[in-house]
């Protein structure tokens, strides 16, 4: 008998895992169902990938979102806050016409006596410091009365209305005198609602303003009082016919709340137009108001 076996000898303690069976080559067509490694995921080549149902695929349903034209009213800069009106699709033209009627804007503006900055705000670069102990509420209100009187004269000048007519008298009684066309910022009313040196707060009714103009106004009030002042806050509490009560906080920016707010505001806009534009049936402003009210009724669901 031969003493040497022609077959390789396997050690008695060897495991089958040390000698795995050779894996047959699988054709490419048969491996189509197997997942492949997604670039950048670090997965193994044999790992299956999870894919969504084709019933929610964009290729089947089309784009999930569509662009909507949104109208914007009187804008606010990054340092201001408060009511900001807007309109949805189909009402942008209506919203632009509404703001062309020059409704008043109402702000609460905070101020701080004793210092001045390069941008008239409390966050700007400090320019100077001044004393303010001599300032009283009576002196402040006296300056505010002068500002309001000067702006009332400017409002009459830009309204292009003959003040000797009956129409001018009726408009003045109802407080409906508006500037015709473009005009510089006009303050129709201003009063002090809080005074505690060195801080104070004003309520300002105005037209064609910017928030930076209001900050500069606070600075000029400080100069008129032989001191200096910076603006600490600009908050709009009324934007035309819209008030703080009509505004939606960020937590309510959802479809249901927005739809409900639109329905409530449509009726409010119509009522305000009828009250504001009830004079002069043949006037262009009244005709514009009628077209806007009719458009609002058509848009109502």
Automatic annotation (TrEMBL):
Q: Which GO terms describe its molecular function?
A: pseudouridine synthase activity; RNA binding
Annotated region Disordered: the residues are 1-49, 278-301
Task: Give the matching InterPro entries.
Answer: PsdUridine_synth_cat_dom_sf, PsdUridine_synth_N, Trub2
GO terms for biological process? pseudouridine synthesis; RNA processing
The Pseudouridine synthase II N-terminal domain extends over: 66-210
Instruction: Spell out the SUPFAM superfamilies in the cross-references.
Output: Pseudouridine synthase (SSF55120)
List, as start-end ranges, the regions of compositional bias called Basic and acidic residues.
292-301
Membership in a protein family: Belongs to the pseudouridine synthase TruB family.
The record, for PANTHER family, names:
PSEUDOURIDINE SYNTHASE-RELATED, PSEUDOURIDYLATE SYNTHASE TRUB2, MITOCHONDRIAL
Q: Would you tell me the protein name for this molecule?
A: TruB pseudouridine synthase family member 2
> Which lineage?
Eukaryota, Metazoa, Chordata, Craniata, Vertebrata
């Amino acid at each position: 008998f031969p003493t040497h076996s022609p077959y390789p000898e396997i050690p008695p303690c060897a495991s089958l895992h040390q000698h795995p069976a050779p894996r047959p080559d699988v054709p490419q067509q048969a491996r189509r169902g197997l997942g492949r490694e997604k670039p950048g995921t670090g997965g193994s080549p044999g790992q299956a990938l999870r894919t969504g149902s084709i019933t929610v695929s964009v290729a089947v349903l089309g784009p999930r979102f569509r662009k909507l034209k949104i109208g914007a009213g009187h804008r606010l800069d990054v340092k201001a806050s408060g009511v900001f009106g807007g309109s949805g699709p189909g009402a942008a033209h209506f919203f632009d016409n509404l703001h062309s009627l020059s409704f008043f804007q109402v702000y609460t503006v905070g101020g701080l006596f004793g210092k001045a900055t390069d941008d008239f705000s409390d966050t700007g670069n400090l320019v100077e410091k001044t004393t303010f102990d001599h300032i009283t509420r009576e002196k402040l209100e006296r300056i505010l009365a002068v500002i309001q009187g000067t702006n009332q004269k400017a409002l009459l000048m830009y309204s292009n209305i003959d003040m000797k007519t009956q129409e001018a008298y009726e408009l003045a009684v109802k407080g409906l005198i508006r500037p015709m066309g473009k005009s510089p910022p006009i303050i129709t009313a201003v009063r002090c609602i809080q005074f505690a040196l060195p801080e104070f707060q004003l309520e300002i009714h105005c037209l064609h303003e910017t928030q930076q103009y209001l900050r500069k106004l606070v600075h000029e009030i400080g100069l008129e009082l032989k001191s200096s002042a910076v603006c600490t806050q600009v908050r709009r509490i009324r934007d035309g016919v819209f008030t703080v009560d009509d505004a939606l906080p960020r937590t309510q920016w959802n479809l249901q709340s927005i739809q409900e707010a639109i329905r409530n505001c449509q009726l409010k806009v119509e009522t305000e137009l009828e009250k504001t534009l009830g004079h002069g049936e043949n006037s262009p402003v009244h005709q514009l108001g009628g077209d806007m009210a009719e458009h609002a009724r058509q848009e109502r669901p």
